Amino acid sequence: MNLTRPETTHDVVIIGAGNAGIALAARLRRDDPDLDIAIVSPEGLHTYRPLLSYVGAGLATLRRAQRPQSKQIPAGCTWYRESVVELTPAPVSGEVDATSAHQVHTNAGRRISATDVVVCPGTHIDWDATPGLRQACASPHASTNYEPTMASATWDMLKNLRQGNAVFTISSRNAPCPSVGLKPLFLAADHWRREGRLENITMTVLNENSDFTGLPRANNEIDSRLRRLGVHVRSGITVESIDADSRHVTTRDIDGNATHWPYDALHVVPAHRGHDWVADAGIARPGTGQIDVDERTLHHRRNDGIWSLGDAAQLGTASSGGGLRRQVPVLSDNLIARRNGKPLAARYDGYSVAPIPIDRRHLILAEWDRQGHEEKTLSFISLARPRMATFAFDLFAQPLIYWHRLLKGK
Ligand SMILES: Cc1cc2nc3c(=O)[nH]c(=O)nc-3n(C[C@H](O)[C@H](O)[C@H](O)COP(=O)(O)OP(=O)(O)OC[C@H]3O[C@@H](n4cnc5c(N)ncnc54)[C@H](O)[C@@H]3O)c2cc1C
């Protein structure tokens, strides 16, 4: 059977309908209502992923985190509910060329051509990067909030722990917003304290990064809170493997020494990787698998009319949904400028965020730019100190802002 369909053409094709793809499509429609935009993305449900951390702490349901994707696609955009399997960029001419078309191929045999292609399919869990991870997460003793279907299992595991070792790993390998791996620790610790079990539980964080956020002031707050709780922290190590049968994690330090960490409950922020078809298209930065765009303009370094943002892009800063608030208007402005033969003037400053609740009432919101300077949303106050208002904002207000403003391109 020949599944090949005739080629269709649009002005812009957006690959991926996550936070990045939907917010950008909506923004482009607002900025230039005449643009003919197609979105290619397979999932029928849209997940507000930051809420998964609260699902994993018994403070939200998965139902609250998900809505039908059909309701998120901006009016006027064409949605192909298919997966991209191949991208063929237009030949590199060496000169700025706004007319060459790129080809997008889907698993339904569709070929779509467009002069601008925005590649934002995120990253996915690299289950094979950590031997034993899959087997461990199939048991009741290990889980990850990074897989939506496992988030409520995280809470079952943590709430039922009476004593023993609770281990929390945080990968440095392409994991989105990795510091939220501290959320299950702090929220579970508060639960164990209220239940009178905290002193029976030894908590350990195995962090592949050298610190938790890009903001020193927030790191100090987090470190002092971890110290007060008696949490053992190992940073700059590599999580090498997990043994699901004997229930231990093996790490290796920079001197090559291996250490085994027994666990009774294990939460993992797993290594992630880019999509193979991105590497095959020749648009990834070697070694990272992420798309090799100019970190400021979000336009590809070599291929005219190829763009990226969100988790799939190599942006020289920690990826986060919060960072997309700044990336979306920049990409929209620059894409429209290129189509009109104008210079790419908008710049992304590397803004990123890490919201860390330190108990079930207070949250530290770290915000920083590419230079590691604090980038305050509210100029008159630093949110990098524990506050009740930011906790309530993160859990209750931010999801509403996401559905009703960010995904509407506002
Ligand atoms: C558990 C968790 C907690 C988080 N907490 C926070 C937080 O508190 N604050 C914060 O700022 N950020 C947080 N983040 C990070 C934030 O969710 C991501 O940075 C953000 O979702 C990135 O959006 P994206 O659109 O780039 O990628 P994604 O959200 O991954 O979307 C990618 C889209 O592409 C689609 N796709 C995949 N493959 C293909 C293909 N082959 N063809 C077409 N489409 C494809 C997918 O179906 C998906 O719709 C968290 C992430 C996780 C996992």
UniProtKB/TrEMBL annotation:
Keywords: Plasmid. InterPro entries: FAD/NAD-bd_sf, FAD/NAD-binding_dom, Sulphide_quinone_reductase. GO terms for molecular function: FAD binding; sulfide:quinone oxidoreductase activity. GO terms for biological process: sulfide oxidation, using sulfide:quinone oxidoreductase. Pfam families: Pyr_redox_2 (PF07992). Residues 10-133 form the FAD/NAD(P)-binding domain. PANTHER family: SULFIDE:QUINONE OXIDOREDUCTASE (PTHR10632), SULFIDE:QUINONE OXIDOREDUCTASE, MITOCHONDRIAL (PTHR10632:SF2). This is FAD/NAD(P)-binding domain-containing protein.
